[in-house]
Design brief:
The protein is α+β, with helices and mostly antiparallel strands and 177 residues long. The chain has seven helices and eight strands; from the N terminus they run H-H-E-E-H-E-E-E-H-H-E-E-E-H-H.
């Protein structure tokens, strides 16, 4: 579970400039190695990294969360911006459903390392449920992209399975903590 938690953070869905699905593949193959030499890592410098080390995973999750809290958290909307550059610049006020739900999961999962993460996860979940849902004659659905106030960024004329599936587990996990 700890290993998958860090992969969540590596692939969190927050759109870093320059990251792509190719990075997901390289991260997965990179992970399969039992040890590697870290180069310029915030956790260690040029030392072997043992991937079954829970301390490493906990530090990695905390480090990732700290980055997003520092640069992406919007106190007014109580949500995280989804478009953040690797140097911490907020590129837009968009909130994507996938990155929002993954941020909820990531924060809640790593709350064991820092209990304040759970509070942020709950606030993010409230944003998701209050600003990123809508209802029509068929029932409730999730908005794919909204601004910090919860307004649709562009009209949605189709529902994409990635936007609609698997949001409940992220919200449900909060009730188990």
């Amino acid at each position: 579970m700890k290993k998958s938690g860090v992969l969540v953070f590596l692939l969190i869905g927050i759109n870093f400039v320059g990251l792509s699905s190719a990075h997901a593949i390289s991260c997965e193959s990179f992970y399969k190695e039992s040890t590697v030499t870290a180069v310029s890592s915030p956790l260690s410098f040029n030392t072997p990294v043992v991937w079954n080390n829970s301390v490493l995973w906990n530090k990695s999750m905390t480090h990732s969360n700290d980055f997003f809290i520092r640069y992406g958290w919007d106190k007014d909307s109580k949500s995280f911006a989804s478009d953040i550059s690797s140097d911490g610049k907020v590129l837009s006020d968009k909130r994507y459903i996938i990155s929002t739900s993954r941020m909820i999961y990531g924060l809640a999962h790593s709350a064991e390392n820092n209990p304040s993460f759970l509070n942020l996860a709950k606030q993010q979940a409230q944003f998701l449920l209050g600003k990123m849902t809508a209802q029509d004659q068929n029932g409730l659905y999730f908005k794919a992209t909204v601004d910090a106030k919860g307004n649709l960024v562009a009209p949605e004329n189709q529902l994409v399975v990635n936007y609609q599936a698997c949001k409940a587990p992220e919200v449900f996990i909060l009730s188990s903590k």
